[in-house]
Amino acid sequence: ALSDFNRMVGDGELTPTEGTLCRTFSAPVEGQYLEGCVDECRSFETLQEAQDHCDQVADCGGVTHSLYGEGQAWHDGVGPYEVRMGPALKPSRDGDISWVRIEHDCNDPDFSEGLSGGGWASSFASNVNTAESSMATTVTWLLVLFGVCGGLVFLSYRQGHPVTIDCVDRARSKVQQIMGIGGMPGTSAYEAL
Q1: Per-residue pLDDT at 116
Q2: Which end of the chain is less crowded, N or C, counting CB atoms within 10 A of the terminal residue's CB?
Q3: The whole model's pTM is what?
């Protein structure tokens, strides 16, 4: 990783460009909100109004369409589109949608498709959603794996496999020792069943 960083510095990839900087917003990132308020999370009726205001605020990281508090007064404004600090995106349980503000060289061809639905804008939103679903899938598979392993240990223990009984008894003793619970001396858990 350090060698990649050094290569990027050496190749000038991390050096700011000399050209004029433009601000563009990513494609909508569904189920995510930008963390932190900027300009007291001022809200607007339309996405375009919020993005225009965000461009005028130096610390603005993007816009979040917030469903939190719908039907109530908005933070400081008239609508659901809030200017946010970011840059961290956080999972939303309320169905929020965010647009991340990205500064780039106006002459950079990689950003030419910006809001037209192609290139980096849709790729950014897709990558965020893929990472989130990938994490959920990994956690699900880990839980399944632990469940299967636990089931196999339980079956082996119930069938009286001596190695499993010994391992379970030692683990149970350690847990009881840590928790300060004493068992019946000289009696294995298997014998107690």
Answers
A1: 46
A2: N
A3: 0.50
Exposed e or buried b per residue across 144-157, where buried means at least 16 C-beta atoms within 10 angstroms of its C-beta: eeeeeeeeeeeebb
User: 95 with 29: CB under 8 angstroms?
Assistant: no
Q: Which two tokens stand for residue 40?
A: 């007291």
Give which of 110, 40, 47 is closest to 77, Cα–Cα. Answer: 40
Length of the chain: 193
Q: What is the pLDDT of residues 73-102, one digit of tens each?
A: 444 456 788 999 877 888 888 888 899 888
Query: Which residues are paired to 89 by β-bridges?
Result: 34
Residue 137 Cα distances to 29, 140, 147, angstroms = 19, 5, 15
With residue 34 as reference, give the H or E element that holds it: strand 32-34
Q: What is the CA radius of gyration of the chain?
A: 27
